[in-house]
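lol ok so funny story. i was supposed to be doing the assay writeup but got distracted and ended up predicting the structure for this chain instead. priorities right. anyway since i did it might as well share w the group, maybe its usefull for someone
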Amino acid sequence: MLGDDKLGSGVLMVLPCQKRVRAVFAGKVVADSRNVLILRGQGILPVYYFPRIDVKPAHLRSTGLGGGPGRAGPIERFDLASADREVRDAAWSHPQPADPALAPLKDHIAFVWNAVDAWFEEDEEVFVHPRDPQVRIDTLQSSAHIQVVLAGIVLADSRRPLVLVETNHPVRYYLPPDDCRLDLLAFSPRTTRCPYKGTASYWSVVIDGTIHENVAWTYRNPIPEIPRIKDLIAFYPEAVDAIMRDGEKLV
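and the output, tada:
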């Protein structure tokens, strides 16, 4: 929940979403709007804010005002309830935002992401957090020579990497499986989700009986917007001894 302690002192922006957004709780749509706003800023994850008129009042119970005279101003909190479930402090609003940058959020309600069961943009489910309108991902085919080394073993050697450039993230190199030592890789039970790419599966590396866990990852079924990374393999720089590009070690 975004109280003043979460907003920090950086620049905040409120942007229109331009998509229909729905929140589903206990099998019911509790919020549904084509006029959602997204709050974004340095150091915070994006947050959907629904116009109050697009939130189903039968599912919310106000627990009163709190907060102080900081950037957010007073904060009204809500419990979320169905016939057989209740989540405390599941939503909040800013009745009188103190920071002018937050003024558009007046008469809007935001939900704690995990307080509801599912989120949809149009008819596609989204995971982890809203997609930031100012995040861009480019995938570029490259002829750079990428080598991945761990414990003195070359795990991957490729001259055909796919370079993934994502706003505010390190460049990642996705390599064809044929250019990786698949005989040393073993699937890990770990999975994670990314709102921009989909569900990632992980690889561990086994060298001389030693297991190096979750060294690399792959997207078997990336979201439709980023199909080129399907089944390619990327390695964590901090999990290996070196990732080399054209003979030079990457920082």
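The chain has a mean pLDDT of 92. Residues 137-249 form a domain with the Metal Binding Protein, Guanine Nucleotide Exchange Factor; Chain A fold (CATH 2.170.150.40).
back to the writeup now i swear
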